[in-house]
Each structure stands twice: as C-alpha cells, then as structure tokens.
Design a protein that fits this description.
The chain contains one helix and six strands. It is of the alpha+beta class and about 80 residues long. Strands 1, 2, 3, 4, 5 and 6 form a six-stranded antiparallel sheet that branches.
Length: about 80
Amino acid sequence: MSRFSTARWAVVEELGDGRWRLTLCDEADDELGAFGLGVEGPWDPDVEPHVGFVLAQLGLTLRGTRPWRVDELGDQRAPVLPLA
C-alpha cells in the first residue's frame, strides 16, 4: 500500500515569486505530504501540467474532466484517486 493511497485531494498553493507547493490530503483534509513543485510561473500553462505529472509519479490521478477549482483559501484544489 502506497503512502498516498488514502489521498483524496490535491491542493496547490502559490508561495509567491511564482513558486508553488503541492499538498496531498485525505478525506478528512488531513495532510499526508507536501512537496515543492520545482517549477516557476503562472498556474496556466506552466504549473497545472506539471502537477499531473507529479501525481502520476506518486501513483495518483486527477478525478473528473475539469477537476481544479479555487477553494476558500484561494488555493487550487482537485479530487484525486489512486491509479488503477
């Protein structure tokens, strides 16, 4: 079982100066892990595709055709599922 098999949310936060952090959370919104993305620039088109690549490396995939939304804190949030 992967460390992130219980992940249900990917949350991407802009840290300023074009830097971003990906946090994986479970169903209760408890943090399972957080990573600096190592990519700088605007959300679209630079960061969003990179997040999908990182999720795949962690054994996760985005759920839905347009999964990203801005949450109440202004961060990008999307549901995730383990890869089959």
